[in-house]
Specification:
Elements lengths: L3 H9 L5 H11 L1 H14 L1 E3 L2 E3 L3 H29 L9 H18 L9 H22 L4 H34 L7
Antiparallel strand pairs: 1-2
Helix pairs in contact: 1-6, 2-5, 3-4, 4-5, 4-7, 5-6, 6-7
Length: 187
């Protein structure tokens, strides 16, 4: 994360299997799991309705659901990035696309530990933006995208990423808030 250009160039030559990439993303996503469980189940969240803490067993369920869906989301995104490649005069290579997306997801997933203090969630978003910068740097390296197609490939990829993460967020929120109810809302 500190020297993304050099790291991406070195990573291009690596030939991990899909199982290796799944393990990598699963490990990198652990801080998000921990952050959600502790942040919502122990620390709690506050708002105009007061302070609210999710019961720990539900916070654990929320964290696990977000963890699993985040891993799935990374791989769906990688699959789509690979499918989009020919449209941008890029090399269609599933493994390279998966590596690119796994590395680009790293900052946001690691920053998920900040969910421990729920008001710091905005920093997770900012770390995810840094991941998009890594995606921008990695598109020509992993996908061999010509310079003139790089920006539009990035923009289309970002739209796809927003849709995927929006669906994951919606599913997670709908399930969890449906189970625990919205704080401050009593019918």
């Amino acid at each position: 994360m500190l020297k993304p250009k050099e790291t991406l160039e070195a990573a291009k030559a690596e030939q991990p299997g899909m199982q290796d990439l799944i393990i990598y993303v699963a490990i990198v996503a652990v801080p998000t799991l921990i952050g959600i469980v502790i942040g919502y189940g122990v620390v709690g969240i506050g708002g105009f309705w007061g302070h609210f803490r999710v019961p720990i067993h539900l916070a654990l369920g929320w964290g696990i659901l977000q963890y699993v869906l985040s891993i799935i989301g990374v791989f769906v995104f990688g699959y789509i990035v690979s499918l989009l490649a020919p449209s941008f005069s890029s090399k269609q290579d599933q493994t390279q696309a998966m590596k690119l997306v796994a590395y680009a997801s790293t900052p946001g997933l690691l920053a998920g530990i900040l969910y421990i203090i729920p008001p710091l969630a905005i920093l997770v978003f900012l770390a995810s933006l840094y991941g998009l910068y890594i995606l921008y740097l990695g598109i020509p390296v992993f996908m061999e995208t010509p310079e003139d197609k790089r920006l539009i490939y990035l923009i289309v990829s970002i739209v796809v990423y927003i849709i995927i993460m929006g669906i994951i967020g919606w599913i997670t929120s709908a399930i969890m808030w449906g189970m625990i109810g919205y704080p401050g809302v009593h019918i």
